[in-house]
Amino acid sequence: TPETVTEKLNGIKDTLCNRSGAMVVYAGEEDSIKANSEYAEAMFEDIPEKPRQEHDYSVLMTDKLNRAMPTGLGINFNGIYAPLDVLGIDYTMKSEVILNLVSDRYALPGLRNKYNVYGFSYTSDPNGIYMCSYRDPNVKETIDFYKGLGDSMRNDNITQDDIDRYILNTYSSFTMPRGELHDAYWAAADYTNGTTSEVKASMMHDMKSVTTDDIMTYADVFDNLYENGSIYTAGSRELIESSAELYDEIVEPFDDIIIVMD
């Protein structure tokens, strides 16, 4: 009901409208910083300060479920995700190099060129590994791609020279200057969240240390990703219903209905 929505929105506002622990990070000329500081202080004076509760966000994690969400779209987002503890690996920047290789060597030719998928994105962070196709006219073909990714890597004759090219590409994308203001801002952000130069050096070292052995290791990781991760699709009702055997649940977001698949 409108009253329920209003109540929940007010709850969000009350949670976010709190200056406890807030900070403003500036990057710019000294005079501009000084002028903006006055406005920031005035803004904070109008925001209440309340103790912040510690929250255990892990309770939001659900068990492995493959879900689909039909929408009015004629195209799809097809994704797969698993946390690192499920995959049996620790967070390392090696994953960035491997995922760069996967995107360029398998996803773009295998999904875009063969099945007309517009794009493919990936993320590796301390929470897990995530991959997703977008503006995807398919469902089964993309899920089959995820299923066969480990074997694609095992059957590919990847040399150390191939890997070195992806190391160079990934390394340069992380170290490339992006402008004085951008780099200054993120240097301040790194300082506030404890990302020291030593941490960054260690991350870069991991990135440069990928070998052919890691290809075989991550082939097993991607097998595990498919077998124990969660698949999701948002998009075409027709394609979702014709692929219903892939999902544990089909969620009807506009009707508050969840269809549990046998």
- Which sequence of strands runs across the widest sheet? 3-4-2-5-1-6-7
Helix share bin: 40-55%
Stretches where pLDDT is under 50 for at least 5 consecutive residues are none
The end-to-end distance, rounded to whole angstroms, is 32 Å
Which structural class should the secondary elements be placed in? alpha/beta
Biggest beta sheet summary: 7 strands, mixed
Protein described:
By secondary structure, this protein is an alpha/beta fold. Helices cover 52% and strands 17% of the residues. It has helices spanning 2-16, 30-45, 84-87, 94-115, 140-154, 160-175, 180-193, 197-208, 212-228, 237-242, and strands at residues 67-71, 76-83, 119-125, 128-136, 230-236, 249-252, 257-260. Strands 3-4-2-5-1-6-7 form a seven-stranded mixed beta sheet. Helix 4 packs across helix 5 (140-154), helix 4 packs across helix 6 (160-175) and helix 5 (140-154) packs antiparallel against helix 9 (212-228). The chain is globular. 22% of the residues are buried. The mean pLDDT is 89.
Topology (elements, then pairings):
Layout: H1 2-16, H2 30-45, E1 67-71, E2 76-83, H3 84-87, H4 94-115, E3 119-125, E4 128-136, H5 140-154, H6 160-175, H7 180-193, H8 197-208, H9 212-228, E5 230-236, H10 237-242, E6 249-252, E7 257-260
Parallel strand pairs: 1-5, 1-6
Antiparallel strand pairs: 2-4, 2-5, 3-4, 6-7
